[in-house]
Amino acid sequence: MISLSELSKQLSEPSKPFDSWQPNHCGELPIVINHEGKWFYDGSEITRPAMVKLFASVLCKEGEQFYLKTPVEKITITVDDAPFIIVDWRFENTVQGQVLCCIDNLARQWLVSAQQPLVIKDYKGSKVPYLKLPYGCSARVARSVFYQWAEKAESDKLGYFIKSAGKQFYLS
C-alpha cells in the first residue's frame, strides 16, 4: 500500500519555486477568472485547455491580489472568487488511511490533508467549503460534490465532517 506522501508526489505537478522568484511587478493584464473558474482575456473566454493550464501553473496569490508570476515578471489579474472549482472526487487508500482526492476543473488532483485543508468561507450568502491550495490559491467545492460528500459525512457536536488523512474536515 502506498503512503500519503508518495501518493501526493504522484498526483502533484512539478511545483514552481515562487518563493525564490522576485520579479518586478509589470502591471495588469485584462485576464479575469470568473466565479465558475472560467478564464477570460479582454472579455473573450480562453477555450484552449493547454493555455489555461499554463497560466494556472504560474498563478499565485500574495496578500489579497492574484498574479501570474514568472522568474522575470509579475502581472496582476482579476479573480472573482476562487480560481478553481472542485468538480469530482474519490477516496484513495494509503498507509495512513483513506485520503480524499479532489479533482479540479483543470483535471488536477489534490489531496485533502493538514497541508491542504478544507476551510469554510462565505459564497453568495452561504457557507461553502474551499480547498486551500499551494501559493495562496484555493478551489471552491462545487455544489454537486458538496451534496455527494454530505451523503458520506459523519457528525458530532461541531457539525458534519468528512475524514481524510486521519483528520476531520467540517463541511459547514
From TrEMBL:
Span of domain DUF1285: 17-82, 83-171
Any Pfam family: DUF1285_C
Gene3D superfamilies to which the protein is assigned, alphabetical: duf1285 like domain, duf1285 protein
InterPro entries: DUF1285_beta_roll_sf (IPR023361), DUF1285_C (IPR048342), DUF1285_N (IPR048341)
Domain of life where this protein originates: Bacteria
Name of the protein this chain belongs to: DUF1285 domain-containing protein
Organism expressing this protein natively: Pseudoalteromonas arctica
